[in-house]
Amino acid sequence: MNKTLPDHLGHFGIYGGRYVPETLFAALEDLDRAYRLIRKEKKFQEELKYYLTHYAGRPTPVYEAKNLTEHFGRARIFLKREDLCHTGAHKINNAIAQGLLAKRLGKKRIVAETGAGQHGVASATIASVLRLQCVVYMGAEDIERQSLNVYKMKLLGAEVRPVNSGSKTLKDATNEAIRDWVTNVETTHYLIGSVVGPHPYPVMVRNFQSVIGIEARQYFQKSLKHLPDYLLACVGGGSNAIGFFHPFLKDRKVQMVGVEASGEGIHTLHHAAAMTMGSPGILHGMKSYLLQDKNGQVQLAHSISAGLDYPSVGPEHSHLKDTGRVRYETATDKEALEGFRMLTEMEGIMPALEPSHAIGFLPRLMPKTQKGQRVLICLSGRGDKDIETIRKHFL
Ligand SMILES: *Cc1c(COP(=O)(O)O)cnc(C)c1O
């Protein structure tokens, strides 16, 4: 593994970079410079640690799923419990850090994009506690589908702006958020929700989410005196997965599997398997695997879980796929529902539909493992938000 990745313009191999207009380039340079300065400051690190501990509820536990382990009769299965974070998922880790960064930069306003509304709620939450003004861009289509999260954002004091362009979903909301940022860069920070977008976002968000992997690695070393043999995580934009994987990348014996959403199947047009079925292309200021048609038009992504419904993926994942350090597999909507059912019935834990894809991949992973080995899954969020969807499918 090349330790210098990404380079100064954010390239992970051929991926990443900064495919943006000139006006945005300067803003990204400023952000990069400020981030690199601030991340070394003791005061910033202490403040971040305080909020992660006392506000978000870190460190999150590692739980051994003994019933699930017994069910498969192979390796021991462990869960990193990001579902126990404040607001119900790992997204708050990044939102807190970027919120504090925005404050240190003297910005009074944040803008964010959201698809399902999870990142919107996390952003509105930290805007409330850090006393920042918050505008969330959301596709009109998504506003219809996710009314509960829209209401939560409003309760938290955020303004939700509907986006009516394009497919009226996450891809279009992201474009609008970027546009707002360019126009209001003096007062505004763009709080991106995953390891995507132009440099420095993929590396910055990865570093903020690495707290997941750092904690997990420490726990295994200290309490189990052994690292996990397998790491398993779902991949949407890729922030929970890369934050989980990154601190283990140099541990050559630790095998890693990222699970993309294959929706109704990779051979239909209804999936979100960017790395499995896409090809390198440019979206939202970065080069990465991208679902696109013959003419290079972005193909719409589909997944039962709105959080995995993104037609591209963070550039570092694309690089890790090409180098072979991480294996990327897929799970269908049906397999994710099965994963949800398994964890709920056997462990009394209702996972969000996103990490249900990782659980749903277990029937294919476990037969390849041995007794005495250890599989650690990133349980990125809890299932409360998905209960209506689940009810419809299980009826
Ligand atoms: C948003 C979300 C994801 C997908 O985002 P990543 O950037 O790929 O982590 C996964 N799990 C949950 C619970 C989410 O809310």
Number of helices: 17
- Summarize model confidence as the mean pLDDT: 96
Q: What is the name of the CATH topology of the largest domain? A: Rossmann fold
The class by helix and strand makeup works out as alpha/beta
The strand line-up of the biggest sheet is 3-4-14-9-10-13
Major sheet: size, sense and barrel closure? 6 strands, mixed
Bound molecule types: pyridoxal-5'-phosphate
Q: Total domains, how many?
A: 2
CATH-defined architecture of the largest domain: 3-Layer(aba) Sandwich
Percent helix: 40-55%
Low-confidence stretches: none
Concise overview:
With 395 residues, the chain is of the alpha/beta class.
How would you describe this protein?
Strand 9 (230-234), helix 11 and strand 10 form a beta-alpha-beta unit. The model has no long low-confidence stretch (mean pLDDT 96). The N and C termini lie far apart (48 Å). The protein is of the alpha/beta class and 395 residues long. The strands form 4 sheets. The protein has a 6-stranded mixed β-sheet with strand order 3-4-14-9-10-13, sandwiched between helices. It folds into 2 domains: 11-52 and 91-205, Rossmann fold; 59-88 and 210-394, Rossmann fold, CATH 3.40.50.1100. The protein is globular. The protein has helices spanning 22-38, 42-54, 66-72, 91-104, 118-129, 140-145, 147-155, 170-183, 201-209, 211-224, 239-245, 274-277, 315-323, 333-347, 353-360, 362-365, 387-394; strands at 11-12, 15-16, 62-64, 76-81, 109-114, 133-139, 159-163, 188-190, 230-234, 255-261, 279-283, 286-290, 326-331, 374-379. Helix 5 packs parallel to helix 7 (147-155). It has 17 helices and 14 strands. The structure holds pyridoxal-5'-phosphate. Residues 89, 91, 118, 194, 234-241, 307-308, 352, 354-355, 380-381 line the site of pyridoxal-5'-phosphate (PLP). The site of pyridoxal-5'-phosphate has 19 residues, from helix 11 and helix 15.
